[in-house]
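Dear colleagues,

As part of the handover before I leave the project, I'm documenting each prediction I ran so the next person doesn't have to rerun anything. This entry is a single chain, and its sequence is reproduced below.
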Amino acid sequence: MRTSDTARLIDALEPAAEEHGFEIVDVQILGSAGSPILRIYIDKPDGINLDDIASAQEEWLEAIVDEVDIIESEYTLEVSSPGIDRPLRTMQHFIDWAGEEVKLVSEPIDGRKRFTGILKGIEEGNVIVECDGTDFSIPFDSINDAHIKGKVSF
C-alpha cells in the first residue's frame, strides 16, 4: 500500500525519470524505524543495467530524494531494477503485463484478499485476474500490493 510519503516521492521523481528516459516502477520503505531502507525500482523501455542504476542515482535521483526528505532519520537508499517479480503500481502496468502470472493483495473481495493467477488486464477501472478458472474483478483502488510472479529456471 502506498503511503502519502511514498506517493509524494513518486510524484517528485517521475518528471526527472521521464526526462532521463527512465520509469519509476515503485518506491518502498522497508525495515525498522531505527534503520529504514528506501528502495526505489527504476526501469527503461529497453531494460536496465548496473551503469544505468549508478548514473541515475548519482545524476538526479539522490538529489530529489534528499529534497523531498520523507525519512527524517538516517536510512539506506537502494536503487534497483524491478527484477523477475516486478511490482505493478499503475493502471498502465496492469495493461502492459496482461498475460503474466501475478500475485495480488487487495481489500477483501467476496471474503478473499489474496489472488494468484493470470492477469487479464483492466476493464472499467478494475483489474481482472483469472484464478483457478474464475475471473475476479478487483477495483484498482483496492489493491494493496501486486507483483509479477517471478519464474526462475535452472
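The domain at 91-148 is CATH 2.30.30.100 (SH3 type barrels.). The longest helix spans residues 50-68.

All the best with the project,
I.
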